[in-house]
Amino acid sequence: MRRPPRRRTQPLLDRHLFQRAFTWLGLIEAVLCYTGFFMVYVMAGEIDLAFVPPSLLALLPELSLDQESLYLLAVTTFHAGVVMSQVGNAFACRTEKARGRHLGWLSNRSYYWACSSRFRLFWF
Q: What is the CA radius of gyration of the chain?
């Protein structure tokens, strides 16, 4: 409430918001989703990570799946990452200046309904 409202001619979705959402936050989303995809193959032993210490790899659970099931699990992991990171992206784009927690976590009830319906569609 300390800032004046935006002008009537100013668009709600401007270039700065699109650049932030698609370049910076989109890049983070892509890296996280592809990391999840490849980690499924690492846990199955299909990809050898020579640069990672074996003691660290021993902490990962082992998967024993056939190739088709392994691929389906990796794709599902990728898509689950996309859904979760888009929810996070929408939280991050609620404001340009302030942090999201300053707005209040329950300030936009319709957004929570949209997120919950998205999760229900994804898991059921």
A: 19
Does the residue 2 lie in any domain?
no
d(CA 37, CA 26): 16
CA-closest candidate to residue 74, choices 113, 35, 103: 35
9 in a structural domain: no
What CA–CA distances, in Å, run from 111 to 16, 30, 36, 53? Answer: 22, 23, 26, 43
- Which tens digit of pLDDT belongs to each residue from 58-95? 888 888 888 899 999 999 999 989 988 888 877 777 76
Tokens in use for 11? 């668009």
51 occurs within a structural domain: yes
Q: CA angle at residue 72 from 66 to 77, to 5 degrees?
A: 125
Which residue type, as a one-letter code, is found at position 58? A
Q: Could you tell me if residue 5 is inside a domain?
A: no
For residue 6, give both structure tokens. 């935006």
Angle, helices 67-92/25-43, rounded to nearest 10 degrees: 160
pTM: 0.70
